[in-house]
Every structure is written in structure tokens, then in C-alpha cells.
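Students often ask why inverse folding is considered easier than folding. One informal answer: many sequences map to the same fold, so there is more than one right answer. In these notes we will look at a single instance of the problem. The structure comes first.
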């Protein structure tokens, strides 16, 4: 019988929680504002982790700058992560912009526009 949560899934969730705290508390760059770590995908051998982030209230250009800053701070964040998690190998971090929240906001805007145009019966 397979487990409901594989080890890589549990590790990804723990890395997500710890990275969110590290970014909030330790990263001092002004280009990194309010960041949401939406997902972490860890490779099977735990050597690499793809981290998907969204900057709240940021346009596309600011989000890309934030992603570049976080990729520049990946070594610093990996070192901080190694102090917080008990893993033999702490994964190398690669940050990606997650457009899911942008798409959701755009859909909400479109729905609001349609509701405003709807003639009353």
C-alpha cells in the first residue's frame, strides 16, 4: 500500500515553510517585498529544489526583479535552510516566478467587469 505522503513531498513542504520564514526574516533587499512561496518541487535525490514565488502587489517587471534577487541570494538561503532542517543534503535552490496569482487576479477582474455590464432584469 503506497504512502499518502512520500518523503519528497514532506521535505518539499518543510522546505516551503522554512524558506517563507527565511525570506521574510532574513532577506533585506528592498526589491523583495511581500513574497509568497506558493510551491516547492524537490528532485528525487534531494539535490535540487524548484521554488515558485509570487510577489504580492507587484507587476511583472518587479516580480522578475524579485526572482533575480532571490536567485542571487540562493546560497545564503540554502545555508540558512541547512541550519533549520535535518537533511543529509540540503537542495540547491532555483527560484521561479509563479503566475498563478496573477492569472487569478486577472480572472477576478474580468468577472467583475462582466457583472458590472450585466443589465438588471
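Output (designed amino acids):
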Amino acid at each position: 500500500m503506497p504512502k499518502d505522503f512520500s518523503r519528497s513531498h514532506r521535505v518539499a513542504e518543510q522546505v516551503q515553510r522554512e524558506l517563507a520564514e527565511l525570506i521574510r526574516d532574513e532577506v533585506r533587499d528592498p526589491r523583495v517585498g511581500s513574497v509568497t512561496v506558493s510551491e516547492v518541487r524537490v528532485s528525487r535525490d534531494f539535490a535540487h529544489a524548484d521554488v515558485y514565488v509570487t510577489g504580492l502587489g507587484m507587476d511583472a517587471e518587479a516580480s522578475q526583479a524579485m526572482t533575480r534577487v532571490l536567485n542571487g541570494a540562493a546560497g545564503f538561503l540554502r545555508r540558512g535552510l541547512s541550519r533549520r532542517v535535518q537533511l543529509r543534503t540540503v537542495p540547491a535552490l532555483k527560484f521561479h516566478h509563479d503566475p498563478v496569482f496573477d492569472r487569478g487576479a486577472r480572472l477576478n477582474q474580468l468577472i467583475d467587469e462582466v457583472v458590472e455590464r450585466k443589465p438588471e432584469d
